[in-house]
Structure formats: structure tokens, C-alpha cells
Amino acid sequence: GHAHPKVIQAVIDAAPRGLSYGAPTEIETRMADRVCEIVPSMEMVRMVSSGTEATMSAIRLARGYTGRDKIVKFEGCYHGHGDSLLVKAGSGALTLGVPSSPGVPASLAEHTLTLTYNDSEEVRRVFDELGDQIACIIVEPVAGNMNCIPPAEGFLETLRAVCDEHGSVLIFDEVMTGFRVALGGAQSVYGITPDLTTLGKVIGGGMPVGAFGGKGEIMEHLAPLGPVYQAGTLSGNPIAMSAGLATLEIISEPGFYERLTEKTTRLLEGIRAAASEAGVPLTTNQVGGMFGIFFTDAPKVENFAQVTQCDLERFKRFFHGMLDEGVYLAPSAFEAGFVSSAHSEEDIDATVAAARKVLAQL
């Protein structure tokens, strides 16, 4: 979305040939081939127009493939605004899910189980009780909607194991992490292979694009090969595919992610040093170019409950102070931050200098 000249030129070149055809195009198949090449777990892929559409479709496919209704998601993970996903936990892990938005039927929410991210024991207990009813687990392999929370050691391995044991589908929602924490996504960082993966944002280079894909055995249940319906007139349109292919070419350049990670690390080291100088308790998380800043005495922040215990008022003052200094951070203490290739070394230096000034006033 930062108007990279190669991406803009790709869009300009594609536009005179037509904006959308409502039918498959050659460039859509080229984009699909490239995605499958970069993310080997995606043997087949379907293009859509948003991350929400990708997650909704992947869950429908998992339900159709398994013949089961229940799904598992985790507190503090966001998977778009599909009705099955706007659900919060009831009074306990095994109780009925409760809608978190008006307009979501309770009869639908009851099929969604919301568990604690990074709690492997809770996952095992729920699958011991209900495993044969659970169609899928959907998870952000690095949670990005309760700020940036990496998976605890063994957590993703547990999800893979219980899905294998009970015949459930493991869905990695990499809409946020895909092509951001590493070229192959979080699954390449942690060495865990999901059954399905959802993608968005980055693969469109700023255009509205999403995708989902995975094992051929599962994807073949999708129409027109199989009975699970999914379609979209604007899916795979040539403008978005052109922007996406240009973006994938740029991020595939040697050293791209090493440079991105180094910049992010330098930013966080600078902010931590500034906080220490100011006597402000602060810790950070980082995976590649994705990061989180937490105002807390805790040495590590690993779940949603810990995030809510951080000093949210201090974060608000920090956010507005940084804004006054010309630096726009994510406006919520529950949102992850991202460093982009568009950020220069001077941008990093200026951000650290602004943080030093603001933290000294907190």
C-alpha cells in the first residue's frame, strides 16, 4: 500500500486491458502458482477479495470436508467479521459461545468454542471431550489482534497433534503474518504445516485481495470439483493480481526479510533503551517485521489476560505523544505494529528519538 513504483506500474499496465471479467484469467493462475511455490503447504489455492472472505470460506470448507459443525478459535485472535467468528467465550471452555456483536444468532455462536491462546492443556481437555464434533481449529500462528503475541513453545505443535488425532482441520490464519514475518509465513518460521492457510493484505500490494488454500484432498471438496460452494465475481481480478505478482517479486529478493527484521529489531532496541532511561516499565515482542510494545513490569507477555493487565492508560498517552511528534502508531494497545520496507533507516532513528522524548514525559 506504499505506492511502490513497480506495483503502481503493474496496475497501470494492467488497467487498459480491463478491470474485471468475472471469469478466470491467465494472471490469476500465475499468481496462484507463485503463492503455492512460496507456501508449499498450499497445494491448491482459491483467490478471494478479502481476508474475511478467505477465513469464512476456509471454515465452510473445513465443515463440509469433515461433516462437523463446531470450530475452535482463540481469545485475542481476529479472523474477520464472519458470523461464526464474532463470538466470545461463555463461562467456561466447554460452554456455548456468546455473540460479540448484535446481528450474530446465538444458535450459530453456540458452535464456536473460544479458548485461551497459548494454553495447550486447555486445548487437549476440550478435544478429549468434544474432538469428534470439531471441524477445525482456526488460529493466528502469531497473534496480532491482542498486540503481537508469539506462540509459546509447543503450542502450535499441540494444535497439529490434536487435529491429527481427531480428524479436525488445522487452519492457519496468516492474513496478518503471511509474507510479513517471513517469505513463507509463520508456518515456515515455526516448522508447523497447517491443512489450510488463509492470506490477505500483503499479497495484494495494497489492493483488496485474499486467498485460501492447502491440501489438495481438502481443496478438492470446493466447487466446482466438490460440493462446498464458494464463488466471487471480483475474485482474482487482473488489477489485484498484477499488484500482487509485483509485490511477491519484490519481497522475494535476496535479503529482503533479513533487512526488515534488522530494522524492526533496531527500532525495538531503541524504544526499550529510551524507556529504561525514563524509568518506564516496558517490554516488547517481535517476529520478523511484526512487533508489540507493552507497558508492563512482566518480562514476557504471552496471552490475552496478560495484555489486558498492561498499563493501557499509559499506552494512550504514549500514542498521543508520538502522534504529536509526527509518528503514527497503531491506535490501540491491542494492535500489533509493523515495520515496512518503505521505512528508511532515518525513519527508524526519528521514531526512536520521538519515543525518547515522549517516554521522558510519561
Describe this structure in words.
- The protein is of the alpha/beta class and 362 residues long.
- It folds into two domains: 5-251, 3-Layer(aba) Sandwich (Aspartate Aminotransferase, domain 2), CATH 3.40.640.10; 256-359, Aspartate Aminotransferase, domain 1, CATH 3.90.1150.
- The chain is built from 13 helices and twelve strands.
- It has helices at 5-14, 26-38, 51-66, 106-109, 120-130, 155-166, 186-190, 216-219, 238-251, 256-278, 304-308, 312-324, 345-359; strands at 44-48, 70-74, 87-88, 98-99, 112-115, 134-139, 169-173, 196-200, 210-214, 283-287, 290-294, 337-338.
- The strands form three sheets. It has a seven-stranded mixed β-sheet, sandwiched between helices. A three-stranded antiparallel β-sheet has the order 10-11-12, with helices on one face. It has a two-stranded antiparallel sheet with strand order 3-4.
- Helix 1 packs antiparallel against helix 9 (238-251), helix 2 packs parallel to helix 9 and helix 10 runs parallel beside helix 13.
- It is globular.
- 46% of the residues are buried.
- The model has no long low-confidence stretch (mean pLDDT 94).
